[in-house]
UniProtKB/TrEMBL annotation:
Binding locations of NAD(+): Y133, Q194, N217
Catalytic residues (UniProt): E330, H331
Function: Catalyzes the sequential NAD-dependent oxidations of L-histidinol to L-histidinaldehyde and then to L-histidine.
The protein's annotated pathway: Amino-acid biosynthesis; L-histidine biosynthesis; L-histidine from 5-phospho-alpha-D-ribose 1-diphosphate: step 9/9
CDD domains, A to Z: Histidinol_dh
HAMAP family assigned to the protein according to its UniProt record, in alphabetical order: HisD
Protein name in the entry: Histidinol dehydrogenase
GO molecular function, one term: NAD binding
Top enzyme category: oxidoreductase
């Protein structure tokens, strides 16, 4: 029997149960915090020496020099050329779609001129060097290489430095091939907090970057949190999650497999289904029980559904939208007759997948948008990773003498109201002469 929570909005304690289900402790226990603090300090102070130590201790990868942990462009290209033709085609097709989508996100400089001749504008420039972290603990993720590196490449980042764990020195050829396809400039077989530290502070071999993006485990998340400010980060990501809103008319096996697609990531992944038909929820649960034994990662799926899964019965689809907005999911499938209409009521979601023929898995690999999305209800204020994450905006201001005469009195008056006399005099000197 599959162990999965059943909830209904008619229950008097529904709000409390939903909060308990969706709250996420990020795993930064005292033990994690202490270990990460030690690693960051060690790498910052001892550089390559510390990286060699942690590579051997944590990844079982002993080297005489950190340079041995770098895979050069020729190695990545060889991995690409060694792929099965169908694998290579899938990788390159996905990359092309991701690149095409992100080309639409590029921003442009602009300027305007006031009637007095003063010029105002905005200047967009790419970051000079970014680091992308590609996880590799429980699976290989060539898709994460594409989803992180291609938006950076489209943005015009000068140098993309990738780190990825390789326990025992083993890394999937598809990951190396993806680095070649995505335009990664340098790749180091480094993982964990030590990789984040190397990117943030730089060592004798690993260059310091301006921003670090990409998900990881609790140690990686805590390391990113701690180095933020010294470098930029995209987000502190929690476990993967999916919320499906269904009207009860989709094949239950389709929905069961869509829930499995996130639950198989790890035991903390969240898979939720909302439907106004209680009998349909029974059908989906029965489908999951039939299909689960066929899954290679069945034990992970079973644990995830027991810990973080739920089948939620609502009064109607309007209430489903309200519950979805409370959850603010990373991935939201709208498996209903009129998905566009329901989507208009959704205000908080990392990505929305419209209709019965659009599983979230398409978004993970090849639809086009980056699959690096806000988790743990942060879709209330955060956005998917995009080209804009790899650019910075500079404001441009230029005043004519006539413009200074207009702005000067305003600035001086406000400055004096704040008691900042030098500010006021600076403004006044431009028009009071």
């Amino acid at each position: 029997m599959l162990d999965i929570q059943r909830l209904s909005t008619t229950q008097p304690d529904f709000d409390e149960q939903l909060t308990a289900l969706t709250d996420w402790e990020d795993g930064a226990t005292h033990g994690v915090e202490s270990a990460v603090a030690d690693i960051l300090t060690a790498v910052r102070e001892r550089g390559d020496e510390a990286l060699r130590h942690y590579s051997e201790k944590l990844d079982g990868l002993a080297v005489d020099a950190v340079s041995e942990l770098e895979v050069d462009a020729a190695g990545c290209q060889a991995a690409l050329e060694g792929l099965d033709a169908a694998d290579r085609d899938a990788l390159e097709t996905a990359a092309a779609r991701i690149r095409h989508y992100h080309l639409h996100q590029r921003q442009s400089d602009w300027e305007k001129t006031d009637p007095d001749g003063s010029r105002l504008g905005q200047q967009i420039r790419p970051l000079e060097r970014v680091g992308i972290y590609v996880p590799g603990g429980k699976a290989a993720y060539p898709s994460s290489v594409l989803m992180n590196a291609i938006p950076a490449h489209v943005a015009g980042v000068n140098e993309i430095v990738m780190v990825a764990p390789a326990p025992g020195g083993h890394i999937a050829p598809m990951v190396l091939a993806a680095a070649a396809v995505a335009g990664v400039d340098r790749l180091f077989l480094l993982g964990g907090a030590q990789a984040v530290a190397a990117l943030a502070y730089g060592t004798e071999t690993v260059p310091a970057v301006d921003k670090i993006v990409g998900p990881g485990n609790a140690y990686v998340a805590e390391a990113k949190r701690r180095v933020f400010g010294h470098v930029g980060i995209d987000m502190v990501a929690g476990p993967s999650e999916i919320l499906i809103v269904c009207d009860g008319q989709t094949d239950p096996e389709w929905i069961a497999m869509d829930l499995f697609s996130q639950a198989e990531h790890d035991e903390d992944a969240r898979a939720l289904l909302i439907c106004p038909e209680a009998r349909y929820l029974d059908d989906v649960q029965a489908a999951m029980e039939r299909l689960l034994p066929e899954m290679e990662r069945s034990e992970i799926i079973r644990a995830s559904l027991a810990r973080r899964g739920a089948l939620i019965c609502v009064r109607d689809l309007a209430e489903a939208a309200k519950v979805a907005n409370l959850i603010a999911p990373e991935h939201l499938e709208l498996s209903v007759v009129e998905p566009e209409r329901l989507a208009a009521a959704i205000h908080h979601a990392g990505a929305i997948f419209l209709g019965r023929y659009t599983p979230e898995a398409f978004g993970d690999y090849c639809a086009g948008p980056s699959h690096v999305l806000p988790t743990s209800r942060t879709a209330r204020f955060a956005s998917p990773l995009g080209v804009y994450d790899f650019c910075k905006t500079t404001s441009i201001v230029q005043c004519t003498p006539e413009g200074a005469a207009v702005l000067g009195p305003v600035a001086a008056r406000l400055a004096r109201s704040e008691g900042l006399t030098a500010h006021a005099r600076s403004a006044e000197l431009r028009f009071d002469h």
